[in-house]
Protein backbone atom coordinates (compact mmCIF):
# COMPACT_ATOMS: atom_id res chain seq x y z
CA UNK A 1 0.00 0.00 0.00
CA UNK A 2 1.26 3.44 -0.88
CA UNK A 3 2.04 5.47 2.25
CA UNK A 4 -0.56 8.11 1.33
CA UNK A 5 -3.26 5.42 1.48
CA UNK A 6 -2.67 4.88 5.20
CA UNK A 7 -5.64 6.49 7.05
CA UNK A 8 -3.39 7.65 9.90
CA UNK A 9 -1.33 9.61 7.38
CA UNK A 10 -3.93 10.54 4.81
CA UNK A 11 -6.38 12.48 6.99
CA UNK A 12 -3.68 14.85 8.25
CA UNK A 13 -1.73 15.27 5.01
CA UNK A 14 -3.57 18.45 3.86
CA UNK A 15 -2.76 20.35 7.07
CA UNK A 16 1.04 20.73 6.64
CA UNK A 17 0.57 21.21 2.90
CA UNK A 18 -1.85 24.08 3.52
CA UNK A 19 0.58 25.63 6.01
CA UNK A 20 3.33 25.48 3.39
CA UNK A 21 1.21 26.76 0.51
CA UNK A 22 -0.64 29.53 2.37
CA UNK A 23 2.33 31.95 2.71
CA UNK A 24 3.16 31.53 -0.98
CA UNK A 25 -0.43 32.25 -2.05
CA UNK A 26 -0.55 35.23 0.33
CA UNK A 27 2.71 36.61 -1.06
CA UNK A 28 1.53 36.32 -4.66
CA UNK A 29 -2.03 37.62 -4.26
CA UNK A 30 -2.00 39.94 -1.25
CA UNK A 31 -1.93 42.96 -3.56
CA UNK A 32 -4.99 41.63 -5.39
CA UNK A 33 -6.87 41.08 -2.12
CA UNK A 34 -6.03 44.59 -0.93
CA UNK A 35 -7.30 46.05 -4.22
CA UNK A 36 -10.54 44.07 -3.95
CA UNK A 37 -11.13 45.29 -0.39
CA UNK A 38 -10.44 48.90 -1.41
CA UNK A 39 -12.84 48.65 -4.35
CA UNK A 40 -15.50 47.04 -2.16
CA UNK A 41 -15.16 49.79 0.46
CA UNK A 42 -15.58 52.49 -2.20
CA UNK A 43 -18.56 50.61 -3.63
CA UNK A 44 -20.30 50.38 -0.23
CA UNK A 45 -19.59 54.04 0.49
CA UNK A 46 -21.23 55.06 -2.78
CA UNK A 47 -24.26 52.90 -1.98
CA UNK A 48 -24.52 54.38 1.52
CA UNK A 49 -24.25 57.92 0.16
CA UNK A 50 -27.07 57.19 -2.27
CA UNK A 51 -29.16 55.50 0.43
CA UNK A 52 -29.27 52.36 -1.74
CA UNK A 53 -29.04 48.64 -1.00
CA UNK A 54 -27.03 46.18 -3.08
CA UNK A 55 -29.37 43.26 -3.77
CA UNK A 56 -26.81 41.36 -5.82
CA UNK A 57 -25.68 39.08 -2.96
CA UNK A 58 -29.30 38.18 -2.18
CA UNK A 59 -30.09 37.30 -5.79
CA UNK A 60 -26.73 35.61 -6.50
CA UNK A 61 -26.66 33.40 -3.40
CA UNK A 62 -30.31 32.38 -3.75
CA UNK A 63 -29.74 31.57 -7.41
CA UNK A 64 -26.59 29.62 -6.56
CA UNK A 65 -28.31 27.54 -3.87
CA UNK A 66 -31.18 26.63 -6.21
CA UNK A 67 -28.85 25.74 -9.08
CA UNK A 68 -26.59 23.52 -6.97
CA UNK A 69 -29.53 21.75 -5.32
CA UNK A 70 -31.17 21.04 -8.69
CA UNK A 71 -27.89 19.77 -10.13
CA UNK A 72 -27.39 17.47 -7.16
CA UNK A 73 -30.86 15.92 -7.23
CA UNK A 74 -31.67 15.92 -10.94
CA UNK A 75 -28.22 15.61 -12.48
CA UNK A 76 -27.00 12.51 -10.70
CA UNK A 77 -27.07 8.90 -11.81
CA UNK A 78 -30.11 7.62 -9.92
CA UNK A 79 -32.39 10.26 -11.50
CA UNK A 80 -31.00 9.37 -14.92
CA UNK A 81 -31.62 5.65 -14.35
CA UNK A 82 -35.19 6.11 -13.12
CA UNK A 83 -36.34 8.86 -15.50
CA UNK A 84 -34.10 9.49 -18.50
CA UNK A 85 -32.88 5.97 -19.24
CA UNK A 86 -36.43 4.49 -19.53
CA UNK A 87 -37.32 7.31 -21.95
CA UNK A 88 -34.29 6.39 -24.08
CA UNK A 89 -35.31 2.72 -24.00
CA UNK A 90 -38.84 3.60 -25.13
CA UNK A 91 -37.47 5.68 -27.99
CA UNK A 92 -35.11 2.90 -29.11
CA UNK A 93 -37.94 0.36 -28.95
CA UNK A 94 -40.13 2.61 -31.12
CA UNK A 95 -37.28 3.46 -33.53
CA UNK A 96 -35.14 0.31 -33.94
CA UNK A 97 -31.92 0.78 -35.86
CA UNK A 98 -31.75 4.49 -35.03
CA UNK A 99 -28.80 6.54 -33.82
CA UNK A 100 -29.26 5.71 -30.15
CA UNK A 101 -27.63 2.49 -28.98
CA UNK A 102 -27.87 2.08 -25.17
CA UNK A 103 -26.23 -1.33 -25.32
CA UNK A 104 -22.99 0.27 -26.50
CA UNK A 105 -23.22 3.88 -25.36
CA UNK A 106 -25.36 3.61 -22.22
CA UNK A 107 -22.78 5.13 -19.90
CA UNK A 108 -22.01 7.85 -22.42
CA UNK A 109 -25.65 8.93 -22.30
CA UNK A 110 -25.41 9.08 -18.51
CA UNK A 111 -22.33 11.29 -18.67
CA UNK A 112 -23.95 13.44 -21.35
CA UNK A 113 -26.89 14.03 -19.02
CA UNK A 114 -24.52 14.84 -16.16
CA UNK A 115 -22.58 17.32 -18.30
CA UNK A 116 -25.69 19.00 -19.70
CA UNK A 117 -27.20 19.53 -16.24
CA UNK A 118 -23.93 21.10 -15.05
CA UNK A 119 -23.45 23.24 -18.15
CA UNK A 120 -27.08 24.35 -18.19
CA UNK A 121 -27.09 25.19 -14.48
CA UNK A 122 -23.84 27.13 -14.59
CA UNK A 123 -25.11 29.23 -17.50
CA UNK A 124 -28.40 30.18 -15.84
CA UNK A 125 -26.96 33.42 -14.35
CA UNK A 126 -25.94 34.61 -17.82
CA UNK A 127 -29.55 34.21 -18.94
CA UNK A 128 -31.34 35.64 -15.89
CA UNK A 129 -28.98 38.20 -14.38
CA UNK A 130 -29.94 41.09 -16.66
CA UNK A 131 -33.59 40.62 -15.68
CA UNK A 132 -32.66 41.70 -12.15
CA UNK A 133 -29.83 44.13 -12.93
CA UNK A 134 -30.23 45.44 -16.50
CA UNK A 135 -27.31 47.88 -16.17
CA UNK A 136 -24.76 45.16 -15.43
CA UNK A 137 -22.60 43.91 -18.29
CA UNK A 138 -22.29 40.14 -18.67
CA UNK A 139 -18.78 40.58 -20.08
CA UNK A 140 -17.77 41.63 -16.56
CA UNK A 141 -18.35 38.03 -15.47
CA UNK A 142 -14.75 37.33 -16.48
CA UNK A 143 -15.53 36.95 -20.18
CA UNK A 144 -13.16 39.63 -21.50
CA UNK A 145 -10.06 38.31 -23.30
CA UNK A 146 -8.05 41.54 -23.09
CA UNK A 147 -4.67 40.99 -21.46
CA UNK A 148 -4.85 37.19 -21.58
CA UNK A 149 -1.45 36.88 -23.31
CA UNK A 150 0.17 39.10 -20.68
CA UNK A 151 -0.92 36.71 -17.96
CA UNK A 152 -0.01 33.47 -19.75
CA UNK A 153 2.98 33.04 -17.43
CA UNK A 154 0.60 32.56 -14.47
CA UNK A 155 -1.04 29.66 -16.29
CA UNK A 156 2.41 28.22 -16.98
CA UNK A 157 3.35 28.57 -13.31
CA UNK A 158 0.25 26.60 -12.30
CA UNK A 159 1.18 23.85 -14.77
CA UNK A 160 4.74 23.70 -13.40
CA UNK A 161 3.35 23.19 -9.89
CA UNK A 162 0.44 20.88 -10.70
CA UNK A 163 2.11 18.30 -12.96
CA UNK A 164 4.38 16.88 -10.20
CA UNK A 165 1.44 16.96 -7.77
CA UNK A 166 -0.75 14.98 -10.17
CA UNK A 167 1.99 12.44 -10.86
CA UNK A 168 2.41 11.93 -7.11
CA UNK A 169 -1.29 11.72 -6.22
CA UNK A 170 -2.01 9.45 -9.20
CA UNK A 171 -0.20 6.63 -7.40
CA UNK A 172 -3.10 6.38 -4.97
CA UNK A 173 -5.64 3.65 -5.52
CA UNK A 174 -8.70 5.92 -5.16
CA UNK A 175 -7.33 8.24 -7.84
CA UNK A 176 -6.98 5.46 -10.42
CA UNK A 177 -10.37 4.03 -9.44
CA UNK A 178 -12.15 7.39 -9.75
CA UNK A 179 -10.64 8.79 -12.97
CA UNK A 180 -11.83 9.06 -15.61
CA UNK A 181 -15.37 9.58 -14.34
CA UNK A 182 -16.56 8.06 -17.62
CA UNK A 183 -15.31 4.52 -17.12
CA UNK A 184 -15.46 3.65 -20.81
CA UNK A 185 -13.13 6.52 -21.74
CA UNK A 186 -10.34 4.03 -22.40
CA UNK A 187 -12.52 1.81 -24.60
CA UNK A 188 -11.87 3.80 -27.76
CA UNK A 189 -10.55 7.14 -29.00
CA UNK A 190 -14.13 8.16 -29.80
CA UNK A 191 -15.16 7.57 -26.19
CA UNK A 192 -12.13 9.47 -24.93
CA UNK A 193 -12.67 12.44 -27.29
CA UNK A 194 -16.41 12.76 -26.59
CA UNK A 195 -15.88 12.54 -22.85
CA UNK A 196 -13.06 15.09 -22.74
CA UNK A 197 -15.13 17.50 -24.86
CA UNK A 198 -18.05 17.24 -22.44
CA UNK A 199 -15.74 17.41 -19.44
CA UNK A 200 -13.94 20.55 -20.61
CA UNK A 201 -17.19 22.27 -21.63
CA UNK A 202 -18.45 21.63 -18.11
CA UNK A 203 -15.25 23.12 -16.66
CA UNK A 204 -15.56 26.22 -18.83
CA UNK A 205 -19.07 26.94 -17.57
CA UNK A 206 -17.98 26.09 -14.02
CA UNK A 207 -15.33 28.81 -14.25
CA UNK A 208 -17.94 31.26 -15.53
CA UNK A 209 -20.16 30.37 -12.58
CA UNK A 210 -17.71 30.35 -9.67
CA UNK A 211 -14.90 32.66 -10.85
CA UNK A 212 -16.94 34.96 -13.06
CA UNK A 213 -20.55 35.32 -11.91
CA UNK A 214 -19.99 34.67 -8.19
CA UNK A 215 -17.01 36.98 -7.71
CA UNK A 216 -18.52 39.82 -9.71
CA UNK A 217 -21.96 39.57 -8.10
CA UNK A 218 -20.40 39.61 -4.61
CA UNK A 219 -17.86 42.35 -5.28
CA UNK A 220 -19.18 44.21 -2.25
CA UNK A 221 -17.59 41.47 -0.13
CA UNK A 222 -14.11 42.42 -1.34
CA UNK A 223 -11.63 39.56 -0.99
CA UNK A 224 -14.29 37.82 1.10
CA UNK A 225 -16.05 36.96 -2.17
CA UNK A 226 -13.18 34.53 -2.86
CA UNK A 227 -13.33 32.92 0.59
CA UNK A 228 -17.11 32.51 0.39
CA UNK A 229 -16.82 30.99 -3.10
CA UNK A 230 -14.48 28.20 -2.01
CA UNK A 231 -17.07 26.72 0.38
CA UNK A 232 -19.57 25.52 -2.27
CA UNK A 233 -16.69 24.94 -4.68
CA UNK A 234 -15.10 22.54 -2.22
CA UNK A 235 -18.46 20.88 -1.55
CA UNK A 236 -19.07 20.01 -5.21
CA UNK A 237 -15.90 17.93 -4.94
CA UNK A 238 -17.41 15.69 -2.25
CA UNK A 239 -17.30 12.12 -3.52
CA UNK A 240 -14.02 12.68 -5.32
CA UNK A 241 -10.70 11.48 -3.82
CA UNK A 242 -10.10 13.00 -0.37
CA UNK A 243 -6.91 14.84 -1.22
CA UNK A 244 -8.52 16.36 -4.31
CA UNK A 245 -11.45 17.66 -2.27
CA UNK A 246 -8.97 19.24 0.15
CA UNK A 247 -6.95 20.61 -2.75
CA UNK A 248 -10.10 22.30 -4.06
CA UNK A 249 -9.76 24.80 -1.21
CA UNK A 250 -6.35 25.90 -2.48
CA UNK A 251 -7.45 25.74 -6.12
CA UNK A 252 -10.50 27.87 -5.32
CA UNK A 253 -8.41 30.58 -3.70
CA UNK A 254 -5.74 30.55 -6.42
CA UNK A 255 -8.15 30.44 -9.37
CA UNK A 256 -10.45 32.99 -7.75
CA UNK A 257 -7.58 35.36 -7.02
CA UNK A 258 -6.22 34.78 -10.52
CA UNK A 259 -9.60 35.60 -12.03
CA UNK A 260 -9.86 38.83 -10.06
CA UNK A 261 -6.25 39.78 -10.83
CA UNK A 262 -6.65 39.23 -14.58
CA UNK A 263 -10.36 40.19 -14.65
CA UNK A 264 -10.82 37.07 -16.77
CA UNK A 265 -11.76 33.41 -16.27
CA UNK A 266 -9.74 32.12 -19.22
CA UNK A 267 -6.41 31.56 -17.46
CA UNK A 268 -8.25 29.66 -14.73
CA UNK A 269 -10.08 27.59 -17.32
CA UNK A 270 -6.81 26.68 -19.03
CA UNK A 271 -5.41 25.54 -15.68
CA UNK A 272 -8.54 23.54 -14.91
CA UNK A 273 -8.66 22.00 -18.38
CA UNK A 274 -5.00 20.99 -18.27
CA UNK A 275 -5.37 19.37 -14.86
CA UNK A 276 -8.57 17.57 -15.91
CA UNK A 277 -7.06 16.03 -19.05
CA UNK A 278 -3.88 15.12 -17.17
CA UNK A 279 -5.91 13.43 -14.42
CA UNK A 280 -7.73 11.25 -16.95
CA UNK A 281 -4.68 10.52 -19.06
CA UNK A 282 -2.43 9.65 -16.12
CA UNK A 283 -5.12 7.48 -14.49
CA UNK A 284 -5.65 5.52 -17.70
CA UNK A 285 -1.88 5.18 -18.12
CA UNK A 286 -1.41 3.93 -14.54
CA UNK A 287 -4.20 1.37 -15.04
CA UNK A 288 -2.90 0.36 -18.49
CA UNK A 289 -6.28 1.29 -20.01
CA UNK A 290 -5.31 3.92 -22.58
CA UNK A 291 -7.54 3.73 -25.70
CA UNK A 292 -6.37 1.94 -28.83
CA UNK A 293 -9.56 1.23 -30.85
CA UNK A 294 -10.83 4.13 -32.96
CA UNK A 295 -14.47 3.46 -31.99
CA UNK A 296 -16.10 0.84 -29.74
CA UNK A 297 -17.16 -1.22 -32.78
CA UNK A 298 -14.19 -0.48 -35.04
CA UNK A 299 -11.56 -3.15 -35.87
CA UNK A 300 -9.02 -0.38 -36.50
CA UNK A 301 -6.60 0.46 -33.69
CA UNK A 302 -4.11 3.21 -32.98
CA UNK A 303 -1.73 3.04 -30.03
CA UNK A 304 -0.24 6.25 -28.69
CA UNK A 305 2.90 5.46 -26.69
CA UNK A 306 4.16 8.96 -25.92
CA UNK A 307 1.97 10.00 -22.97
CA UNK A 308 4.91 10.35 -20.53
CA UNK A 309 6.90 12.24 -23.17
CA UNK A 310 3.96 14.54 -23.92
CA UNK A 311 3.53 15.37 -20.24
CA UNK A 312 7.25 16.01 -19.92
CA UNK A 313 7.23 18.35 -22.93
CA UNK A 314 4.23 20.28 -21.59
CA UNK A 315 5.86 20.67 -18.19
CA UNK A 316 9.17 21.70 -19.77
CA UNK A 317 7.54 24.35 -21.97
CA UNK A 318 5.68 25.74 -18.97
CA UNK A 319 8.94 25.87 -17.03
CA UNK A 320 10.60 27.78 -19.88
CA UNK A 321 7.77 30.36 -19.88
CA UNK A 322 8.01 30.81 -16.11
CA UNK A 323 11.80 31.05 -16.24
CA UNK A 324 11.63 33.68 -18.98
CA UNK A 325 9.12 35.69 -16.94
CA UNK A 326 11.34 35.44 -13.85
CA UNK A 327 14.34 36.60 -15.89
CA UNK A 328 12.42 39.60 -17.23
CA UNK A 329 11.27 40.53 -13.72
CA UNK A 330 14.85 40.24 -12.45
CA UNK A 331 16.11 42.50 -15.22
CA UNK A 332 13.31 44.99 -14.61
CA UNK A 333 14.01 45.02 -10.89
CA UNK A 334 17.69 45.59 -11.52
CA UNK A 335 16.83 48.59 -13.68
CA UNK A 336 13.98 49.92 -11.49
CA UNK A 337 13.76 48.45 -7.99
CA UNK A 338 10.16 49.57 -7.56
CA UNK A 339 8.79 47.79 -10.66
CA UNK A 340 7.69 44.70 -8.75
CA UNK A 341 5.22 46.76 -6.82
CA UNK A 342 2.92 46.59 -9.85
CA UNK A 343 3.44 42.92 -10.56
CA UNK A 344 2.13 41.39 -7.35
CA UNK A 345 -1.48 41.98 -8.10
Mean pLDDT: 89
The secondary-structure class comes to mainly alpha
Q: What string, H for helix and E for strand, traces the elements in order?
A: HHHHHHHHHHHH
| Radius of gyration, taken over Cα atoms and rounded to an integer in Å | 22 Å
Helix content: over 70%
Number of domains: 1
Q: Which characteristics define this entry?
A:
345 residues; mainly alpha; 12 helices
Can you give me a brief rundown of this structure?
This protein is an all-alpha fold and 345 residues long. It has 12 helices and no strands. Helix 3 runs antiparallel to helix 5 (102-132).
Kindly describe this structure.
The chain has one domain. Helices cover 71% and strands 0% of the residues. The chain starts with 6 loop residues before the first helix and ends in a 10-residue tail after the last helix.
Amino acid sequence: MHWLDLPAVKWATPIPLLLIIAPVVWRVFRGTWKTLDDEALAWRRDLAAAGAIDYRPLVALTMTALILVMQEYFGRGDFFETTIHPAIDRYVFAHPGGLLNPAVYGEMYLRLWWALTRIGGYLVPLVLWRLFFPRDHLADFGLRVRGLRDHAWIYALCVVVMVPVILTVSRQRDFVEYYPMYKAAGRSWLDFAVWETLYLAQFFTLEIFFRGFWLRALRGFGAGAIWSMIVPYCMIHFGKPYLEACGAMVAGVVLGSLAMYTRSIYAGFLVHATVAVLNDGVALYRANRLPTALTPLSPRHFTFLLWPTLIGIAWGLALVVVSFKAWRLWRARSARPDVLGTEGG
